[in-house]
Structure formats: C-alpha cells, structure tokens
Write a structure and sequence with these properties.
With about 180 residues, the protein is an alpha+beta fold. It contains three helices and eleven strands. The strands form three sheets. Strands 1, 2, 3, 4, 5, 6 and 11 form a seven-stranded mixed sheet that branches. A two-stranded antiparallel ribbon has the order 7-10. Strands 8-9 form a two-stranded antiparallel sheet.
Length: about 180
C-alpha cells in the first residue's frame, strides 16, 4: 500500500477523478519542494477511465487549450509492448496504469488511491531520488523438482524483496471512489 501511505493526498472520497484532481496533485507536489520534476501519474484502471471521461467530455475554453496543446494523447490507444502500464501523457506528465489486482484502497476499501510521484532512477543515494525504495533480500534461489517416471520437471525461483516510502515529499496520493 505504498501510494496509500503517502501523507499528502488530493481528491475526494466517494467522487470520480476529475481534471481538477490532476491539477491539484501537481500544485501539491510543487509545494512539497521535491528533488526534481521527472514526475509520473500512477493511476488505477478506474481512475484512468475517469480521467479519459473528464477530458473527453470537457467543453469550453479549458478543453480547447488541452486539445490544442496535444497534451491528451492518453485518449488514444498506446500499445504497451513492454507491459509496464504506460498509457500516454496528460499535461506533459506520463501516465502509468497498474493492474486491478494491485489496487490500493483507502477508507475501508470504499476508495482507491493512485498518485503523482517523482520517478527514481539509479542508486537512491547517488542517483535521482524517487518517492519509493525497492530492496532485495537474499539472491534469487533456484530449485528443480523432477519426476523421472513422467519425464517432466519444474524449475522454481524464490525471490525476497520489499518496497517502502523513501521520501514522503516526493509523492502525492490521489484518492477517488472505488469502481
């Protein structure tokens, strides 16, 4: 529940994600004085749909500005051959959508939590710092389970890892209603 553990949040419990939530997340991030501006939205599938609906249904001068600037390519299908969840950009910021099985919830699962985070690259001490840290335990352990009579075998791999909030000022949670 990394995104749900961020202390700074925007959005409204029980409400759909709107354009104002994305803008407010950016404002909140700026007030936190993050280390850099290599940011990314990480949204649930439901929040992504609500963002598409908000921009697609927008009208008037605000909508015209977004569409003229071409900052809504996330409305188009973006093939994700690498399977990392990349869906395009909005307001110049990449959007990644994580699998529904990994939804992070809040308020007794009545809401889901996405976020706007600083992207970390490289060593967290000497490289670009991000919102979260990923650590590995022991090296990967392999084992082979074979059944000679059936002429078959299985290769098993065990990995130890954990993740946690490295820098609370490098992320903003976005709380909206659960699907």
């Amino acid at each position: 529940a990394l995104l749900a553990s961020l202390s700074n949040t925007v959005g409204t419990s029980g409400s759909d994600l709107g354009i104002a939530d994305l803008l407010t997340a950016q404002y909140q991030m700026r007030t936190q004085s993050p280390h850099h501006r290599d940011w990314a939205f990480t949204l649930t599938a439901n929040q992504f749909l609500e963002a598409q609906t908000a921009f697609g249904g927008a009208s008037g001068s605000a909508a015209a500005v977004w569409f003229q600037q071409g900052n809504v390519d996330f409305l188009n299908l973006n093939p994700d051959a690498s399977r990392v969840g990349y869906e395009g950009t909005v307001m110049g910021i990449p959007i990644y959508v994580f699998e529904t099985a990994h939804n992070q919830t809040a308020n007794a699962a009545a809401d889901v939590v996405g976020g706007l985070i600083c992207v970390g690259r490289g060593n967290p001490e000497t490289g670009q710092q991000g919102a979260f840290a990923y650590v590995e335990g022991e090296p990967l352990r392999y084992f082979i389970d074979s059944d000679e009579s059936a002429r078959q075998g299985e290769l098993g791999i065990i990995a130890e890892y954990a993740a946690g909030v490295l820098d609370d000022s490098a992320g903003v949670g976005i709380v909206t209603d659960a699907p």
